[in-house]
Write a structure and sequence with these properties.
Length: 381
């Protein structure tokens, strides 16, 4: 927790404004994260993944620093334009787009689109003529704490046909993209995907089509309970893999950090609502219920894939294993049960807890107001 966040939360308590869970994001941390990516991969353009945290203050800061943006919808495109980005710094990176949304993006000046099938190529050719397209391929996501499914991307051997089809329809076959899985803890995982990308470059070159760009995707982690490699290690591993598979003819490269850009910039303050047991049996676990759960910010605890650090004022005191759950009237709103969480025995109802590493994928998952609990209140400092 940064001193700025600590001071903000202390003042909020003194003023009696701590009436529910809140997220506090420190822009200074994001600024330093951006600079870290720029240093680690100096010849690579940063396309921040807007879905991680689309707060206007975050987008404006990154736009002022020179960042580009990866967007998944027309509203995200409009948000980044409003924050000061120009259309040439925005990609429409979702491979699943309504044709009218492609047309609207084109109208707004967007010329860079992701695809993973010929059907998507045909939409773009009809309403966004002359645009650049890059084809997303499937790759191994092992080593990632939040593995991505087969929903996005095609088999590498299909990509050649998809991009050749784009070329025939008058689009610019621009490059290849992949994603090695969110919260990827193994920097070596880019190697295999880059080999596939290089093969596609060569196959298309033999057909007279010159690709230019490799989108290295996201996957760059933030620190939760476990230490993760520094961004410099990822930069070194990626550069080695690029040199290995592309030789001296390195392509243009872009990255799409989301979690790695904003995750460690945020802290949620929450409150213990209830502590109880389900029976008096020996060894029965305590249940600790917080005023925040899966439906108002902590959706990434699904299957306990992301294990957030939870801090209390009693840290260092004796602990006991606990089940942690949220406040909603839904039985799936349990955060950690398969692997119980160690919390202080002295923890009491009404105690404040701090949940670290929550700058990414929290506010964006808490916009509905399920059960009447309001969306997660957010402060950007």
């Amino acid at each position: 927790m940064t001193d700025r966040i600590q001071e903000f939360l202390a003042e909020r308590r003194r003023a009696g404004r701590d009436n529910g869970p809140c997220l506090v994001v420190d822009l200074d941390v994001i600024r330093e994260n951006y600079r870290g990516f720029a240093r680690a991969l100096p010849d690579t353009r940063v396309f921040y993944a807007v879905k991680a945290n689309p707060a206007p203050e975050v987008l404006s800061l990154l736009a002022s620093l020179g960042s580009c943006f990866d967007t998944a919808s027309v509203p995200e495109i409009e948000q980044t334009l409003a924050a000061g980005a120009t259309p040439d710094r925005i990609s429409f990176g979702n491979t699943i787009k309504k044709e009218r949304d492609v047309a609207r993006a084109y109208e707004l000046g967007i010329r860079l689109f992701a695809v993973d099938c010929v059907e998507e190529v045909e939409k773009i050719a009809r309403v966004a003529p002359g645009s650049k397209v890059f084809c997303r391929i499937l790759c191994d996501g092992s080593g990632a704490e939040w593995p991505l499914s087969r929903k996005f991307g095609c088999a590498p051997e299909m990509a050649t046909g998809v991009l050749e089809h784009a070329h025939r329809l008058g689009l610019q076959a621009y490059g290849v993209s992949f994603h090695v899985g969110s919260q990827q803890t193994d920097p070596r995982k880019w190697d295999g995907a880059l080999k596939s990308a290089a093969d596609i470059f060569r196959d298309l070159a033999e057909r007279g089509i010159t690709l230019q760009m490799v989108n290295l995707g996201g996957g760059f982690p933030t620190k939760y309970l476990k230490n993760v490699p520094a961004v410099k290690q990822y930069g070194n591993a990626i550069f080695r893999a690029l040199s290995k598979h592309f030789g001296n003819r390195l392509p243009e490269t872009i990255i799409e950090p989301g979690r790695g850009m904003v995750g460690n910039a945020g802290m949620i303050e929450a409150e213990v609502v209830l502590i109880s047991k389900k029976s008096e049996a020996e060894g029965e676990l305590r249940w600790v219920y917080l005023d925040i759960g899966k439906f108002n910010g902590l959706a990434e605890t699904i299957d306990e894939m992301i294990r957030y650090p939870i801090r209390t004022e009693a840290d260092g005191a004796p602990t006991t294993p606990c089940v942690i759950a949220g406040p909603s009237c839904d039985s799936v709103d349990v955060l950690y049960e398969k692997k119980p969480y160690e919390l202080p025995i002295s923890l009491e109802i009404g105690t404040k807890v701090l949940i670290e590493g929550t700058g990414a994928y929290t506010t964006t998952y808490s916009a509905v107001g399920f059960n009447g609990f309001p969306p997660l209140e957010t402060f950007i400092i």
